[in-house]
């Protein structure tokens, strides 16, 4: 994403659209790859079981494919969320007049190290909060999942 930023600034400009385009660009690939991989990795035996039980295609997707694909799907969403947050901060660092990235740049230019450090801490805290929200959503959507791979 960082390598394409100068070209995106030329085509899109330094405005909100640049943030939207960069976030979409950096997020799309991990989410699309994880989604296709998670659906492709569903056991063919489970899909065949749905056929044997005479499930409709919608029932097969909602009862078999989606629950089986959710763990990998959430991994892709977590990667996409991290990429989106990083992309937003990078765009604000290099091509914006507002936001936490701009605040860090402004603090650096004024030699106010404390402002830069506070902005870094806020960026980290928001990133942790976004990740925790996604973990909560993952636990809510998958009530059958009892093991906790993160040990919390």
From TrEMBL:
Localization per Swiss-Prot or TrEMBL: Cell membrane
SUPFAM superfamilies documented for this protein: MetI-like (SSF161098)
Family affiliation: Belongs to the binding-protein-dependent transport system permease family.
Lineage: Bacteria, Pseudomonadati, Pseudomonadota, Alphaproteobacteria, Hyphomicrobiales
GO biological-process terms attached to the record: transmembrane transport
Domain ABC transmembrane type-1 intervals: 1-134
Key word GTP-binding present: no
Keyword field: Cell membrane, Membrane, Transmembrane, Transmembrane helix, Transport
InterPro entries xref list: MetI-like, MetI-like_sf
Membrane topology of the entry: Multi-pass membrane protein
Principal subcellular localisation of the protein: membrane
Transmembrane segments: 83-103, 115-137
Top-level lineage group: Bacteria
PROSITE patterns the record matches: ABC_TM1
Record GO cellular component, one term: plasma membrane
Protein name: ABC transmembrane type-1 domain-containing protein
CDD domains (UniProt xref): TM_PBP2
